[in-house]
Amino acid sequence: MAKTNKQGNVLARCIYCDGAQTGFEVLDPGQTNWGGVVYDRNSDRHDFRLARCQNCGAGALAIFAFRHGTNMGLANFYPEAKERLRLPDDVPDGIKAEYREGERCLEASCYRAAAAMFRSVLDKTLRANGYKAKKGTTLEQQIDLAAADGVINAARQKRAHDELRVLGNDVLHDEWTALTAEDVELAHYYAQRILEDFYDDRESILAVLREKGRTPDEDRQQDEETT
Q1: pTM for this one?
Q2: From CA 163, how far away is CA 183, in angstroms rounded?
């Protein structure tokens, strides 16, 4: 979460620095053509100030709150990245892009959209590993098959159901309800762990999949190239 230091600059994760923690120089209104904005309402005041990443030079907006003339500190900062989790190198580009889009939704407080994206990551990962071979096989069944094959353990199986499948299904199929950052952070974390299960040691997982009669995308693409 963004905070100020003794020099009055903001320490935050920069979305343009791949989520790295960096310092933002808060600009005086006279330093920029865009100036600043002061919003007064009764005894409350908010100062909207432009800030500049000291690493890459990207811009951001820092909002400082004052009450009865007392500086209450940093009230908001935008855009701010959250922690960007590491993904294995062998994760397919499309799945990796979907995961990163889910992270951007989470960073923008679009929690329902983020939950749907992380569910989609789970769905596409299982499909890419041969668990949607038969028409009508549900996502619930695919998760259980992956656990039965030993590709994911029982703890990950439960999390895939509870934090990814059920949460995503609620967003896609049920009436609108608000989600919190905490709800989706779990989906964010466990989607990454499942990608690690499948792609951190890809050759070992491919051996298991083939032994169990699954057809991962790598084999399907190879068959198409030879026909």
Answers
A1: 0.78
A2: 8
